[in-house]
């Protein structure tokens, strides 16, 4: 008779928490509320009502409005690998990617909520800066090297965040109605310059 040996040290697969569906529902509701109301006007009660739960449950899972916001806006720009893109097309490719990220669900709502909140809230502004600066710097370094990386990333962010603000937050009519190809052609050309041309004042 062969006795089966059980390895007690082996870890069993982690089971999802029973509370996870509630957490996910609250987080999804928070993204909708922050996107619609902005940080200042959004409240734990509004999020709870949107999620169909009690405010105490929101606090139980996320601690505070600030912590809930931080969880709701963990955002990956999912920047494409630009190293294989023909050099003259990099700016257009990056601009096209951002238009898609702004407009796809649910990420567009998250990014819109963050941009709205960043206008008036230090915590949101710091998060937005962290996301754009850190993730754009990696993309810039892959194309242009680390020399001038911070400045290039900041200039590109000024274009892409400006586009997001006017088209998706302020909803400037002329910007909202603008065709994608027109935006990609002109904003993309500026982004292209920031990526590939000298940005040193001494060279101008």
Number of strands: 0
Residue stretches low in confidence (pLDDT < 50, at least 5 long) are none
Largest sheet: none
> What is the level 1 CATH name of the largest domain?
Mainly Alpha
Helical content, roughly?
Answer: 55-70%
Give the overall average pLDDT.
84
Return the domain count: 2
Rg value: 22 Å
User: What amount of the residues lies in strands?
Assistant: under 5%
- Spatial shape: elongated
CATH topology name of the largest domain, in short, is Tetracycline Repressor, domain 2
Describe the fold and architecture.
It is elongated, with a radius of gyration of 22 Å. Helix 1 (about 20-40) packs across helix 2, helix 2 (about 45-50) packs across helix 3 (about 55-60) and helix 5 (about 90-105) packs across helix 6 (about 105-120). The longest helix is centred in the middle third of the chain and has 23 residues, at about 120-145. The chain folds into 2 domains: about 20-70, Arc Repressor Mutant, subunit A (Orthogonal Bundle), CATH 1.10.10; about 85-204, Tetracycline Repressor, domain 2 (Orthogonal Bundle). The termini are far apart. Helix content is about 65%, strand content about 0%. It has helices at about 20-40, 45-50, 55-60, 65-70, 90-105, 105-120, 120-145, 150-170, 175, 180-195. It is mostly helical.
List keywords for this structure.
single chain; 2 domains; elongated; Tetracycline Repressor, domain 2; Arc Repressor Mutant, subunit A; mainly alpha; 204 residues
């Amino acid at each position: 008779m062969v006795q089966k040996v059980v390895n007690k040290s082996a870890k069993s697969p982690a089971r999802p928490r029973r509370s996870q569906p509630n957490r996910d529902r609250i987080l999804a509701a928070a993204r909708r509320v922050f996107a619609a109301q902005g940080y200042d006007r959004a409240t734990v009660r509004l999020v709870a009502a949107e999620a169909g739960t009690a405010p105490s449950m929101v606090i139980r899972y996320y601690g505070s409005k600030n912590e809930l916001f931080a969880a709701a806006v963990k955002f990956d720009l999912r920047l494409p690998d630009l190293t294989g893109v023909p050099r003259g097309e990099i700016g257009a490719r990056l601009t096209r990617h951002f238009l898609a990220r702004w407009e796809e669900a649910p990420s567009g709502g998250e990014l819109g909520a963050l941009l709205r909140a960043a206008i008036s809230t230090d915590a949101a502004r710091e998060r937005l800066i962290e996301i754009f600066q850190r993730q754009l710097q990696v993309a810039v370094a892959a194309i242009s090297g680390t020399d001038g990386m911070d400045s290039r990333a900041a200039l590109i962010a000024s274009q892409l965040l400006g586009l997001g603000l006017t088209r998706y937050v302020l909803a400037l009519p002329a910007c909202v109605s603008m065709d994608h190809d027109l935006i990609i052609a002109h904003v993309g050309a500026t982004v292209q310059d920031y990526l590939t041309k000298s940005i040193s004042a001494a060279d101008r």
